[in-house]
Write a structure and sequence with these properties.
This protein is α/β, with parallel strands linked by helices. Helix content is 39%, strand content 26%.
């Protein structure tokens, strides 16, 4: 591309003209500096407007026609089927058909076979519900989404425990109508809202997403023309110094060549990447893991692994068992898998199987895996760790473009106070968020996030309170209270300086403590903060329970405590 065409394609001449016209009105002493500042400010405004435009698509009236949710057990399946039946239109903007299933596969199927199995079970459920042939609907052009929600959520502890192991049910600061009652939205529902904008370009495909990451692409919603594609934040192939400085060896990577064909790599050094990747690689990016399959590829993979699906045997993940053997050379694949402890014989057999599958599926050759770019400037709000839960919720009280975008996404702009009843003499900092709260007196300082909180008084700064009932004043700085019912007979205060999450079970009410800097995954089996049990102990106790029943118990406990306070 010639220089002039390049500049025009990026709107540079128009930007310069606009900036010059603007400074001619004021005639500053340093016009060059003024022009540069004006252009930078205009560019930031343009980028922000573009990202808000992406959010408008997410919150608009469009979404997937069929929504599959893969849950960890039957109780979770029933819980989500009931809840999403009432929230899906408000959450995604479209009245999609909800098909919740659970993975009853000893030892776990892996996210590769797990995707095929969940789709199979969803097909059976759709048939049973109203005779719908889901697979044929997708062949005919229906857009299907599949959300994986399984996992212990160790790094989010103690929050998933407070949801009785319902990790995707962890709440965020936004109110939606659940059975006629304004209730906090869940992480899963936020992911569904965000990903709904891909439905328009995913006709005849099954799009697979994870249940705890929310992102806003900076390069628009891009479609794919390959049988399979994977989401990644692409950039030009880095130098060795850049690779090491950005620690790219810690991430799963996608590389794209001049023909748009993608190659999957997992956590490798720069030297290994150069050795494995095609010579004409143009871009490399960190993988988001989310992928989509055409109807034809879904049919073919389901047929290929029919024996495993029938017997519920083996455990295969999409990256090492689908995409890597499809895109790497055999010797390179064996070398990568050997580092995972897989024998040469096993990786050789699997590679040959996938090579035969690929040849049968595409006898004429061509790229099977493509990449859908989300842009390097994408907003990324991850709630998969306790520290990130703090970070991205407290972001709502800040003034950055990303903070404004997240508030817009969650429906908190322009009003940060919604459905709340506050005492006339209360002091509330303008940066704080209050949703569905009843507080008679006190002060809510800078950067607080309060959702569904009932208390006689508060004195807070930089705190997060989610579903909290207390019959005594709540005081503190920098803490998190989650699903807390505190009855002290009007004596003393409830402190919010660290982390407390309450767990409601048929025979007990547990109070689990932690701190923002405690990674539950690292202390999973250890009793911390003088708790009665380890996070793993709570997980095991919750495994035996019905999440729907326990959720009802928690709701009743809040209601009973609030009734006493009237």
């Amino acid at each position: 591309m010639e220089a002039r065409a390049y500049l025009e394609s990026h709107g540079v001449p128009d930007a310069i003209s606009t900036a010059v016209a603007g400074i001619l009105k004021d005639r500053p002493e340093e016009p060059v500096t003024a022009i540069a500042k004006a252009m930078l400010a205009a560019e930031e405004s343009r980028k922000e407007a573009k990202m808000l435009g992406e959010i408008a698509l997410m919150t608009g009236p469009s979404g997937f026609e069929y929504i599959i949710v893969c849950c960890s057990n039957l109780a979770a399946e029933n819980y989500w089927q009931k809840r999403l039946a009432t929230t899906i239109k408000e959450v995604t903007g479209a009245s999609g058909v909800v098909l919740c299933v659970h993975e009853d596969w000893n030892g776990g199927a892996g996210n590769g076979l797990g995707t095929l199995y969940a789709f199979q079970k969803a097909c059976a459920k759709a048939k049973e519900m109203d005779g719908t042939d889901l697979a044929q609907k997708m062949r005919d052009g229906a857009a299907v989404a599949l959300y994986h929600t399984a996992g212990k959520g160790t790094r989010m502890a103690p929050l998933p425990g407070a949801e009785n192991n319902n990790k995707p049910g962890v709440k965020l600061p936004s109110l939606i109508d659940v059975g006629g009652e304004a209730s906090p939205i869940t992480v899963l529902e936020c992911v569904m809202r965000q990903t709904s904008s891909y439905a328009a370009v995913r006709k005849g495909r099954c799009s697979v997403f994870w249940g705890d990451q929310i992102f806003v692409p900076s390069c628009g919603i891009q479609e794919s023309n390959k049988p399979a594609d994977i989401l990644a934040a692409l950039r030009p192939m880095p130098t060795k110094a850049e690779w090491e400085a950005e620690e790219l060896h810690q991430y799963g990577l996608i590389a794209v060549d001049t023909k748009g064909s993608a190659t999957q790599l997992e956590k490798v050094s720069y030297e290994t990447a150069v050795a494995y990747l095609p010579s004409d690689v143009q871009k490399v990016g960190t993988s988001l893991g989310s992928f989509s399959l055409s109807a034809a590829l879904m049919d073919a993979l389901t047929a290929e692994f029919a024996t495993e699906l029938e017997g519920k045997t083996a455990s295969l993940d999409s990256d090492p068992h689908f995409w890597m053997p499809m895109t790497l050379k055999k010797a390179d694949y064996q070398a990568v898998m050997s580092k995972k402890g897989v024998s040469a014989e096993e990786s050789d057999t699997h590679y040959d199987r996938m090579a035969a599958f690929t040849k049968k599926f595409q006898p004429g050759g061509g790229a099977l895996l493509g990449c859908v770019d989300v842009g390097t400037a994408a907003y990324w709000w991850d709630y998969g760790r306790l520290g990130l839960y703090f970070e991205n919720n407290l972001l709502l009280g800040q003034t950055s473009a990303s903070a404004h975008a997240l508030r817009t996404f969650l429906g908190l702009h322009p009003y940060r106070q919604q459905e709340s009843k506050l005492g006339s003499d209360m002091s509330v900092d303008e940066s704080s968020v209050l949703l569905g709260c009843q507080v008679a007196s006190g002060k809510i300082g800078k950067g607080c996030i309060l959702v569904n909180v009932v208390a006689p008084a508060v004195e807070l700064e930089g705190c997060i309170l989610m579903n909290v009932t207390s019959d005594v004043p709540i005081t503190g700085k920098g803490g998190l209270l989650y699903n807390v019912v505190h009855e002290a007979g009007g004596s003393g205060t409830l402190e919010c300086n660290r982390v407390r999450a309450d767990v409601f079970m048929p025979d007990s009410h547990l109070k689990m403590m932690s701190a923002e800097d405690i990674d539950g995954g690292k202390v999973w089996k250890t009793v911390v903060e003088n708790n009665p049990f380890s996070f793993e102990d709570v997980y095991k106790k919750n495994q035996k329970l019905d999440v729907g029943e326990c959720t009802a118990l928690a709701k009743s406990a809040h209601a009973a405590a609030r009734a006493k306070m009237k």
